[in-house]
Design goal:
heterodimer; A: mainly beta; 12 strands; 0% helix; B: mainly beta; seven-stranded mixed sheet; 54% strand
């Protein structure tokens, strides 16, 4: 079984500051992927960034980077230079790849990020 | 715009009724996943179809069923609806290859009265 834990239900951050959203995971799969999604108040789920368990380098996508610490089973999302439009729910998710990776994503409960001007 | 479409956007119905939610994946994607997002349970994986065949089941109730048609669109059927089935239902599609990300549709918000 897989489990994702996001310990920050909500965060307030000043605009232009960097933000770190915490995510820890648990899995028995030797090969897995970690994902971050953003859900604005409009409701859609927007893919942000992906990290494979065997990737040697931390993933980066524009202002988003993933601080992957495999031994600690953590996959924190870092948003640099936050903007008002970053205000949203953020979900960490994972998927194991044993059995061909057919299973769906396991999500955490999310962090509600509010960027203040 | 993710390229995944879902209809209807909103659905209001009564307990005991049956509804069908529709999803069209991105062009070329063979995989369709269904998820339920509720206040109680959060985001939960329901079921995965690949090229018309069921590939994996998650926390899907026996009252719920899904299928994927030859044109690759998928339908999620919810029957004997209960108040607790009120939720946002997402479908997501994925390109071939285990490591690719899933792209989510805009969701169907179901309200059971």
């Amino acid at each position: 079984a897989q489990k994702i834990t996001q310990t920050q239900p909500g965060m307030f951050v000043q605009e232009k500051e960097a933000v770190t959203l915490d995510c820890t995971y648990d899995t028995s799969d030797p090969s897995y992927g970690l994902f971050w999604y953003k859900q604005p108040s409009s409701g859609e789920m927007i893919f942000l960034i992906y990290q494979g368990s065997y990737d040697q380098q931390n993933a980066t996508e524009g202002r988003y980077s993933l601080n992957f610490q495999k031994a600690r089973k953590s996959a924190n999302l870092v948003i640099s230079a936050s903007q008002l439009g970053d205000s949203a729910m953020y979900f960490c998710a994972m998927r194991g790849y044993s059995g061909g990776g057919a299973d769906g994503l396991t999500f955490g409960k999310g962090t509600h990020l509010i960027i203040q001007p | 715009d993710s390229g995944v479409t879902q209809t209807p956007k909103h659905l209001i119905t009564a307990t005991g009724q049956r509804v069908t939610l529709r999803c069209s994946p991105r062009s070329g994607d063979l995989s369709v996943y269904w998820y339920q997002q509720s206040l109680d349970q959060g985001l939960q994986f329901l079921i995965h179809y690949y090229n018309g065949e069921e590939r994996a089941k998650g926390n899907i109730l026996e009252r719920f069923s899904a299928q994927q048609f030859p044109d690759l669109h998928s339908e999620l059927n919810l029957s004997s609806l209960e108040l607790g089935d009120s939720a946002l239902y997402f479908c997501a599609s994925k390109a071939q290859g285990a490591y690719n990300e899933q792209f989510f549709g805009p969701g169907t918000r179901l309200t059971v009265l």
